[in-house]
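Input for the complex:
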Amino acid sequence: QKEVEQNSGPLSVPEGAIASLNCTYSDRGSQSFFWYRQYSGKSPELIMSIYSNGDKEDGRFTAQLNKASQYVSLLIRDSQPSDSATYLCAVHSGGGADGLTFGKGTHLIIQP
Amino acid sequence: EPEVTQTPSHQVTQMGQEVILRCVPISNHLYFYWYRQILGQKVEFLVSFYNNEISEKSEIFDDQFSVERPDGSNFTLKIRSTKLEDSAMYFCASGAGGPEETQYFGPGTRLLVL
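Predicted:
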């Protein structure tokens, strides 16, 4: 059974600070890792993808992957109130048409 | 920017009725997916579709579910005899495939079974 674990929160961060979101996964064979943002009642929106160990930066977002520890994280720098949402970690086994396995998400609140 | 579209946005049905949820994937994508999210719970994979056939399906995707690509643009999910526990948001997603495997989600259909 593939599992993706996230702290459900809420995680409260002051505006302008760094928000740090974490995720662990159980399937050591997982190949691709994604962070999606989901506003209440809306669909998941892709924020970042990462496939190799290390850091990947895109604007205010940095994804970090450590396959040995089966750990993925997302850092959001200069947090804005509009970043307040649920952040979903998703994992893909790498096989052709496999579905994504999602965590339950971390509810992030950016305090103005 | 191309995006996945879904219709209807909301659907209310009586238990035991059949519903068809429709999706138009991104045009150059080859892989199509359905997911569901029961209120307050995580997004769950239902089924993937490639080359006009089901590629993978989860335990949730039992005999009451079916998928079809009736033409070159639409991708449908049919629930034959709806149950109360089928009430959820249903998301269609599509992807180009390849090593990145990124999947892009549509806005969803909120299904309520009474």
